[in-house]
Design brief:
The strands form 3 sheets. The protein has a 9-stranded mixed sheet with strand order 7-8-6-5-4-3-2-1-9, with helices on both faces. A 3-stranded antiparallel sheet has the order 10-11-12, with no helix packed on it. By secondary structure, the protein is α/β, with parallel strands linked by helices. The radius of gyration is 21 Å and the shape is globular. The protein folds into 2 domains: about 5-250, Aldolase class I (TIM Barrel, Alpha-Beta Barrel); about 300-364, Arc Repressor Mutant, subunit A (Orthogonal Bundle), CATH 1.10.10. Helix 2 (about 65-75) runs parallel beside helix 3 (about 95-105) and helix 6 runs parallel beside helix 8. Helix content is about 40%, strand content about 20%.
């Protein structure tokens, strides 16, 4: 069944490592965006009833609960099995959480990133480990037990000791789902741009080496496994039964529709997206994305590019084994891919250079 992604691109402050289309905006700008978002959802021609909704950002927990209710009411569905709300630690209140539950939110993803005070301070984060602990207690007390915590390996000032401390907190809090991302150096974040231009702001000079960041990630994989978390996708770990129903749609090439700034959609044949800047999105008005701006998807390439992100891998068809014989043979011989009874998946080594592996399945 399809899913819905809703972008709320506003935050109280912009983190140095963030490369998403999000930022700080005035109350009037947020209001204009919220009304445009509602219009976009209400004018959509629904071909199918969705089963999941994911509010991403930005900081969707800043949405007023009444607006959240309006958005969900505008989405036709027989039954939403999963409604996820991304939250910044410290933006939760008992009243808000009670309203979220009333609206149907049953999963929360907390953007923790780190539990270390030095890393948090230099990344522009305003919470502490104790704030995260209180947030989890609040969510659980109101019946939301399906909770994800995000961590980033490779932040400035991160050390083996500080990373172990963050993993200690994960074990102590025991959320059913954990996401571990490697910090990406690119020009879309302030920190990334500073690193690429040789600057020193945002603690760019204190970034751990690539090898160190990789070791942090591998340490997380090992420790999470011991604690009962299965890595079901490159960056995602879950206790049994707590895999993200919505996010699995992306990796299994199931349809989804996105609303809001920089939101993307896929119908099984085409992909398309909304503008990634606020003004163009607001000016988009009542017009839908024209067909000539939609990209036809090569389903075979996509199967390898996104499907191999899953730990279970994929089961290529006879045609796919033939078409991609060369890259499959190359990466299998190098130990980056594994074949098992008709299945193909990344090896533990292959996960670490996954983007390099994936690229060779494009334009074959």
């Amino acid at each position: 069944m399809p899913g819905v992604y809703i972008s709320y691109p506003f935050c109280n402050q912009k983190c140095t490592f963030c490369n998403f289309a999000s930022g700080v905006a005035s109350a009037p700008r947020r209001s204009s965006y919220e009304q445009a978002l509602l219009r976009e959802i209400r004018r959509h021609s629904w071909e199918w009833p969705p089963e999941t909704v994911y509010f991403g950002g930005g900081t969707p927990s800043l949405l007023h609960p009444s607006l959240l209710a309006e958005i969900l009411a505008a989405i036709p569905s027989r039954k939403l099995v999963e409604v996820t709300l991304e939250c910044a630690p410290g933006t939760l209140t008992a009243e808000k959480v009670a309203q979220w539950v009333k609206c149907g939110v049953n999963r929360v993803s907390l953007g923790v990133q780190s539990f270390d005070p030095v890393e948090l301070r230099h990344s522009g984060r305003g919470h502490t480990a104790q704030v995260v602990e209180r947030d989890l207690e609040l969510l659980r007390s109101r019946g939301i037990t399906n909770i994800n915590l995000d961590l980033i390996a490779g932040l400035p000032h991160q050390t083996e000791q500080s990373w172990d401390n963050s993993l200690d907190w994960i074990e102590r809090l025991a959320p059913p789902h954990v996401s571990v991302y490697l910090f990406e150096v690119d020009e879309d974040s302030r920190l990334g741009k500073e690193i690429l231009t040789g600057g020193t702001r945002y603690s760019a000079a204190f970034l751990p080496s690539d090898d160190a960041a990789t070791e942090f990630y591998e340490t997380a994989v090992d420790r999470l496994a011991v604690s009962g978390y299965r890595r079901y996708e490159i960056s995602n770990f879950a206790q049994s039964g707590f895999e993200s129903v919505h996010n699995l749609k992306y990796w299994r090439l199931e349809p989804y529709v996105g609303f809001g700034l920089d939101a993307h959609s896929y119908d099984g044949t085409f992909r398309w997206g909304n503008p990634d800047s606020l003004e163009p999105y607001l000016k988009q008005g009542e017009s839908a994305v024209p067909m000539h701006e939609r990209e036809r998807v090569d389903h075979f390439e996509e199967r390898f590019f996104v499907g191999l992100r899953l730990s279970d891998g994929i089961r290529p068809t006879a045609l796919e084994w033939s078409r991609f014989a060369s890259p499959i043979r190359k990466w299998t011989e190098l130990g980056m891919l594994e074949q098992d009874n008709g299945s193909l998946r990344l090896s533990s080594r292959g996960v670490l250079i996954s983007n390099e592996v994936f690229q060779e399945f494009l334009n074959v």
